[in-house]
Amino acid sequence: MLIAGFPAGAFQTNCYVVAPAAGEECVIVDPGQDATEGVEELLREHRLKPVAVLLTHGHLDHVWSVAPVCGARDVPAWIHPDDRHLLSDPAAGLSETSASLFGGLTLSEPDDVRELSDGAVLPLAGLELVVDHTPGHTRGSVSFRLPDDEIMFSGDLLFAGSIGRTDLPGGDYPTILRSLAAKCLPLPDDTVVLPGHGPQTTIGRERATNAYLKEAAPHAGPTRGI
Asked: Is residue 225 part of a domain?
């Protein structure tokens, strides 16, 4: 397994390329602000051919470069339908202060956009990525897992020692706690978490030390259908 990444732009959003090995096909996760050059460097260094861009959610700092990255390599972008509107209207996901700063920024959808659903398995680049819908940071937030390798790309759901903010449009604190309970707490302790910002961690470390996961634990019991 080859996973390489770098923090992109002023927001220091982690962008990843993922492949079975060097010289093979790959997927790109969350190409944020000014990520195009860094992505191209990783592709050249590891002799990779991208087949898709995967987006954990639609916030500007994660999708800024998605159209140019997809266009340069003629590959589709995958995003949850609840966040798709943010690809062309990034201000809709920002606070009033941030919207005033970036409101004039024009983004567009890539030519080929495909929609994610909870529990879907994406067979891409020789990988099988499981999609978990994890709303709370945004309505359309997702995480991607490689179950056989115990790896999770958590986006802005879970960080080392923290979780994603819930005070922006579409965010909701009780909802993110339920997402943490349903999608993170059941995972093995050895699961490596590669977040949207900051250093990697593990589910076991966060289970033991992250106050938000401790708060989410009561939400992890059985649920009833309506």
From this structure: no
